[in-house]
Each structure stands twice: as C-alpha cells, then as structure tokens.
Amino acid sequence: MKLEVKHFDLSTGGPLVAVLDDEDAKKLGLMALDRIRIRRLRSKKEIIANVDISTEGIKPGKIGLFFETLQRLGVQEGVHVDIEPASRPRSIDVIMKKLDGHILTREELSILVDDLIHDRLSEVETTYFVAGAYTKGFTLEESAMLTEISVDLGFKLGLKNKIIVDKHCIGGVPGNRTTMIIVPIIAAAGLTIAKTSSRSITSPAGTADVMEVLAPVSLNHEKVKRVVQETGGCIVWQSSLSPHGADEKLIKVRHPLSLDPQGLLLASIMAKKKAVGATHVLIDIPVGEGAKLTYRAGNMLKKKFISLGRKLGMKIKVIITDGSQPIGSGIGPALEARDVLEVLEGDGPEDLRAKSIFIATELLKLAGVKKAKQVVLDVLNSKAAYHKFLEIIRAQGGRKHLIIPEAKYFYSVESPKSGVVKHIANKLIAKLARIAGTPDDKSAGIYLNVRRNNHIHKGDVLFTVYANNAKRLDYAKQFVKRHHKKVVVVG
Amino acid sequence: MKLEVKHFDLSTGGPLVAVLDDEDAKKLGLMALDRIRIRRLRSKKEIIANVDISTEGIKPGKIGLFFETLQRLGVQEGVHVDIEPASRPRSIDVIMKKLDGHILTREELSILVDDLIHDRLSEVETTYFVAGAYTKGFTLEESAMLTEISVDLGFKLGLKNKIIVDKHCIGGVPGNRTTMIIVPIIAAAGLTIAKTSSRSITSPAGTADVMEVLAPVSLNHEKVKRVVQETGGCIVWQSSLSPHGADEKLIKVRHPLSLDPQGLLLASIMAKKKAVGATHVLIDIPVGEGAKLTYRAGNMLKKKFISLGRKLGMKIKVIITDGSQPIGSGIGPALEARDVLEVLEGDGPEDLRAKSIFIATELLKLAGVKKAKQVVLDVLNSKAAYHKFLEIIRAQGGRKHLIIPEAKYFYSVESPKSGVVKHIANKLIAKLARIAGTPDDKSAGIYLNVRRNNHIHKGDVLFTVYANNAKRLDYAKQFVKRHHKKVVVVG
C-alpha cells in the first residue's frame, strides 16, 4: 500500500512508530502494535516499525512518522512510501518462553538483546520480558550469558590494562559518596579504575550527580578512555557511554512499577563492569533498617555475585556494610561533594572517611597489592589522592578553581530534648532532601550534625535543610513538622 | 510549573499522554511514564496524564497534549496550564501484588477495573497486569469477582426478560458459523437471545464480520435493546457496545504476544454474557488436531466454566465438540453468510446444519423447553427461523433484498490422486483465506468441497480460493503450491 508521509514532530525516545488511519490499517488487516515494513520508493531503504492506529490526526492515504522513524528511513514529509505487514521479530518467542517459565539459551538471549538494541521491540513487548524475568526469574547461568551478550553486542571501553579495578554499591543509603574518594585513592596508588556511575532515580543524588558539581560527567567513549589513560581513573555518567543500550530500554519500562528483577539487575551491574574491562570488583551491599536489603537478603545476593563473578572470570569481593543510617554529613550533590573534598584534604566526616579507606584497602588487597591499608593511608595523608582527584576533575573538563554552589535558604532543626540519637531514617532523609530540591538543584539538601548513638542536648541542631527557593523550603518545613520525630529519633 | 499547550494532532486510542521537554521534566524530577496533574488556569478542571519526555518536537515551556488529553481537559493550543507531579494510581499496588503471586480481593479488582476504564493506566502498566495474570494465574473466585465488577462498572444492556439465553464458542475452527443459525432458531422458538459477537483478530472471519455482510453490526446500546425487544434476538459487534471497556484495553496489550491468560479469558467471556443479562448459557469448546485445545485441556476448561457459572448464578452447559476440521463449506464472510442462509432455507452444508440443530436443542433444553429438538426442527423446517433471521437483519438496519458480494477471481485446487480425505488443516485453511483477503474483503475466502473421510477421485475439486484482486489470488496460489498436500490430505 502506497502512503504519503506526514511528519509528527515528536520523538518516541526509541521504538520506531508509524501511525496509520483506521481504515487503511483495516485494509491490511493490521492491529495496533503490529509491525509494518516501510520502503522508500525508488530506493532499497526500508525499516520495520510498530503500528499505531488513529481515527484522529491522520487521514486515509497518509502515514504519520515520528522523529526517529523519519530519520531512520531518511525521508521527508510529502514523499510516498510503500508499506506491507511484517512478521514479529524473533525475540517475541524468546519473551514468550520466559513468561512460560523456561530457561533461555545463549542464542535466545542474543536474539533478545539484539532486538532491544535495534529498537525492534515495542514498549509493551519489552514490558512482557521484564515481567517474565520478574515472575519466573533467571538462573545465574542466564545472568552470566546476558552479561556477556550485553557487552559483546553493546559498549566496550577497550582499555588494554591487565588489571582494572572497579566497585559498585547497591545503594539505598543517603550520602555514602565513597566512590569519589576511592577512585582517586586507587589511581594515586598506581592502579586503574574506570568508574561509570548512575544519576539519581529516586535517591537525593547519584554519584554522577555529585561529580557533576565539580566536572562534566557526560563524556563520550573516546574522551573517557583518554581521561583514564592519562590519570588512571574517571568518574563519569554511565548512560552517556551507551545511551541506546538494551539496559536503558529495560530501565524505562521497569520504572512505573519500580520493578527490579534480580536476574536482570545482576546482569546489568556486571555488564557495566565488564564493559570497562574490570578484572577485580568490590561490591558493597548495605543492609539494615532503612536500607534496600535485610542482612539475610544481602547475604543471598552476595553469594550470587560471587558465583556470577566466577562464571564471568572476574575476581569479586562482596562486603556487607551497615546501611541503617546515612554516611557522611551532606545529603545532596553539592553538600556531598564538599564532604568528599574534605575527606581528601584530610578532614571531613569520620564515617565517610573510614568506609572509603576500608573499601579502597579491600580493593587493593583484591588486586594483590601488599600492605594495602598503608598504601591507602599514605596516598590519603600525603594528599596524593587529593591531587589525583583534581587531576581527574580537570581531565574530565572541570574548572581549575572549584566552586561549590551554596543554597540561598536554610532551616535548622533542633533536638526537642536531651538524650541519645536512636535512629536516623534513611527514607525520610532521602524524601526530605528531594523535597528541598535534590538532585536537580545541586546546592539543595540536608546537612546532618549527628549520627546514631551521639549524646545530644536539648536545642542542639540535629540537621539543616538547604533549599534555593522559599517554596521548596516551606514544603520541607511542613514535611519536618509532620515527620521530624521520626527523621532523627532521640531517645 | 506553568506551561503553554501545544496540540499534537494525534489520538493515542485511550491513555492520556502529555509530552514534556527533557529539561522541564528534569526540573520536576519526572521520568517517562510518571504522572502529572494538569490544571487549567482560572478553572478547577484538572486531569492526570502520563508523561512522555522528548528532546525533539517540544520546546521548553511547552506541553504537548494528544487528542484525548486535550479533549478531556477542554483546552486549546496556546493556553497555559499548571502541572505538578502526581502520585501513581492505586491499581499499581494491585498489579504488583498479582505479579508477586497473591490472590486479589474484590476491592483490589474494583480499583483495577476502575483505573482501566478511566484510562488511568499506561500501556506498560496494563501489560504488567496481563503478564501477572498469565504467569501467576487467577483463582475461579477472582475470575468470578472480575466478571461481576466488569459488569457493575461497565456496560449493561438492561433487558427485563426473566430468561435470556446465550451461547459462546471458544473458536479456532474455520467456518463454524452456527451462531447466525442458532439465534433465529431460538428467537423463532419464542425465547430471547441478545448475542454480541467479535470480529476476527487472526481468523478468516468473526461472527460480527459475517453478519456485517447482511446487516450493520455496530449498533449502539439503545438500538440493540430495541432490536432484541422487537425480534427476540440480535447479532451485533460486541465492541460497539462498550468501546472503552476494561476488556478492550487488555485485548490491545495481549495482542503482541497473543497472550490469553485463562483467568482473564473466563472473566471476559462471562462478563459479556452477564452484561446482556444472560441466564442460560451454552459454551462450545471445539477440541482436536488443529483446534485451540486438546480434549484434555478442553475438559479442564469445561470444569472451570461450570464452576464459574455456579458462582455467578448462571446456568451453564458446556459441550466439547470436534474441532479438527472446518465446519460448513464457506470460509470467509460472504461465503459463510451464504452457508448460513442456505441452512436456514432448508439446504446448506450438512455438518453446519447438524451442529446448529444440536446446539439450539441443548440451549432450549437448558432453558427448560420441552421436546426441544422437535421445536428446533419445526422452526427450521417451517422456515420460521429463516423469516426470523430476515426480521433481525432488517431490525438491525439491513437491506430487504440481500445481496451477497461475489469475488472476481477464483482458483480451484484438484486432488492429485484418488483416495480418502484424511485430514483438513484448520490453520492452513485459515491462513490461506486471510491471504486471499478475508476478513476485510468480504467476498474473499475458500469454498471447501470435501470433508474428512470423503472418498474422492483424482481430479475432483478439493477446494476453491476466491479473491478480488489478481495479486492476492497469486499469493494464494503460491501458498497452495507450497502447502497444498498439507491443506487437504488425501491418503
């Protein structure tokens, strides 16, 4: 069927979509979400797109193409194209097989990842895959294959170093910005660490958000490679390296239900490590009240990481850490960046410093470095790590003179009584920081003056909320009024 | 955040979608598929819509609204609206619960159906529900509750008759157009049958497609009620009665994987019966080679229908029938309509006639009619059923003089040898008919000259393919050449 192209000036952000008039669709026996082959006339260029059917907005004889579809086909409004029904991509059978509870083969997983990368699956189909992974699970073998396939078909940094160390934290603990301290320590100790980090989705800040206070983090492949080759380290936003990866498409449809199928999660984490060529990886699993996992669940996950590492030929060490209260004083990009700089300068919050030293030491030990703890303390105390950090910041394109933005407004919360801090609620702290404007407002957030078991007096400041607009601060105040005895519990 | 409305002249066919610029979305911490509340300025009117995020096609400070969203909010391009992040609808927790394998309560199912009907769920979220229903299943109690809730919150025909009979066939057998014979028999026998039927999705024709050869089938609520009150029967397209029902939204996302979660299927069928007020229902489950179900699976489904009917206070009779070959000679809307008229006029294919008499008899028995078989034969032989059919056709708006369209081209396939017909392949017959142009080309299809166990001679015509354009006929010929020894197997 020959149709005239109408341009819908809109991006779908991935899937190729073509809109047909109801009657035209009927003539070809097409239903919404079916596929068509669209061919340019007098050209061999053709693409497969998902059909959307409309009774409004498109006339018979016309075909509406969204930005990506138009671009991929290389046509403009007004030209004619030929369309015909196309068959489903092979991964549909793979998805069906997972929904039916079967174990997938390497070939089947390859078909799936390839179709995801090349935008051959609609959002609905991708959702069925995530639902299958969630309800029927993945074996470790499947997760290992998925990891390898994602790297093979996707992004590889291509460093030649024999040893590349890496770290990952499961997250869920406000503050806890150890990565930005560990990376310069490792690089200053002469090892290589190509760290790719995420931005916040629901937390007050991700490492990429915090690093962005000091330097650009959206670097392309070549630039990242050069930064690591020059300095031995980097801290960049992982999605800028493979914006069209299979993982990014899965994340989009996982979001509405916050679904985290463990088999996919494991593969996603390990693929990011394998993509940068990591050989020695430390995984931090914070557990406890207010953390993502209980001690028991953390231990089960630990075993899976270790087995998966073995299958993938990577040396993995997993540490279970206390995730029951924030780590560091700052919560929010600028406040956390300040903590990081202070620790590297020899000061800063003791808990953040101690955890960073511990992880850096474990990483060096894992990579076979002798007297690891002494090495870590040396590069930290001599400021070698601090200077390495400045070097990395500049290599990524950051300014020579660091300027950390400060919020216009603040509001301090005092203890209503004397006593001991019994509990600090991670989730309420995170929520309060987001209400104050994190992560997009870099200078917003919370500064915590206390930790669990601190003895305090009535009237002592427990924490301060920072915001850049009065309305945000007001919302934060209201939230504190409703919840503050639960945010920091004094007993 | 105040934004200026841009009209995207396009319908999504349901879900309310608003497109935001990437940067604006970030400012509010919104991700794709999140929800926002959109409020008209100087008005209390507001709606909740799903967010789509675009880097192309929408400028900062603007919000793109699709047809439905614009209409529901009652605004025009250029006006300003105020938006803020909105929370997820309550049914998200219900969907999560099903994915986790739990049984849903009546209240939870009500929340879900209500959100489906009112377009509060995105396609991705709806897909998670279908995937949950498929992988974790429904108890009969859940299916019964879902049936009742769908009717309560959705469409009800509102007839006052004490006894309303109905029938349903699980499908999968080409031809098999018994409904159009049974409805006039039942109505001529003095009972009431308000039959709502489907169009074809993947078959050569649905009952609504075949009836449409003779009369309009897209009737509104009031019209259907009047037709049934006047004539005692009707044969209409079910989706024209509740185009925005929860079921229609589930069907859309079930289509890409052809997913048929049995718990949803049962509720969907029973809700359609309950919506027309059916009290006595016969379910036909064709089984065997080439049918949808095996004998064993058919029997399991039979038990579920009977239990479900009991829970819903309906008298159900389930028959397991031979579905291993087509029933009737015509396959395709016009050819099937011809078979139906011939049977009602006292002639026509013997198998179609026998099955229709059997089902009509069982239905009358179920409704307590004495000497049911004699009643059926009487109204059939006296042409009372035929005249009732003409009456129903006219009441629905059909022409007085029926014109059945004929195809321009045909191609007869002869037996390559003498012998006995061993098998007729339902699925290949269905595929061939669709290649020839069914269901949209009403006159296209297949006319079968033989049935299983018929003795035939070399050169006898096995079947004839009808098409309205030479290219279609050519495709059909090629398909026959590739498959014809499997379409009708002569041994």
Chain-wise SSE layout:
The structure is a homodimer of 491-residue chains.
Chain A: E1 2-8, E2 17-21, H1 22-27, E3 35-40, E4 46-54, E5 62-66, H2 67-73, E6 80-86, H3 91-99, H4 106-117, H5 123-136, H6 140-153, E7 165-169, H7 179-188, E8 193-197, H8 207-211, H9 221-231, E9 233-237, H10 246-254, H11 262-275, E10 280-287, H12 295-312, E11 315-322, E12 330-331, H13 333-344, H14 350-366, H15 372-381, H16 384-395, E13 409-414, E14 419-424, H17 426-436, E15 445-448, E16 455-456, E17 461-467, H18 470-487, E18 488-490
Parallel strand pairs in A: 1-5, 2-4, 7-10, 8-9, 10-11
Antiparallel strand pairs in A: 1-6, 2-5, 3-4, 3-6, 12-15, 13-17, 14-16, 14-18, 15-17
3D architecture notes:
- With 491 residues, the first copy, chain A, is of the alpha/beta class.
- Chain A is globular and about 80 Å long.
- Chain A is 43% helix and 20% strand.
- Chain A has 18 helices and 18 strands.
- The first copy, chain A, has four domains: 2-86, Barwin-like endoglucanases, CATH 2.40.40; 91-137, no CATH class; 165-241 and 269-395, Nucleoside phosphorylase/phosphoribosyltransferase catalytic domain (Pyrimidine Nucleoside Phosphorylase, Chain A, domain 2, 3-Layer(aba) Sandwich); 409-490, Aldehyde Oxidoreductase, domain 3 (Alpha-Beta Complex).
- Chain A has a six-stranded mixed beta barrel. A four-stranded antiparallel sheet of chain A has the order 12-15-17-13.
- Chains A and B meet through strand 4, helix 3 and helix 5 of A and strand 4, helix 3 and helix 5 of B.
Q: Which two chains touch over the largest interface? A: A-B, 50 and 50 residues
Strand content of chain A: 15-25%
Rg from alpha-carbon coordinates of chain A = 25 Å
Give the N-terminus to C-terminus distance of chain A in angstroms.
75 Å
**Quaternary status of these chains?**
homodimer
Largest sheet of chain A, in brief, is:
6 strands, mixed, barrel
Q: Which structural category do the helix and sheet elements of chain A fall into?
A: alpha/beta
- Looking at the structure, what is the overall shape of chain A? globular
CATH superfamily caption of the largest domain in chain A: Nucleoside phosphorylase/phosphoribosyltransferase catalytic domain
Which stretches of chain A are low in confidence, meaning pLDDT under 50 for 5 or more residues running? Answer: none
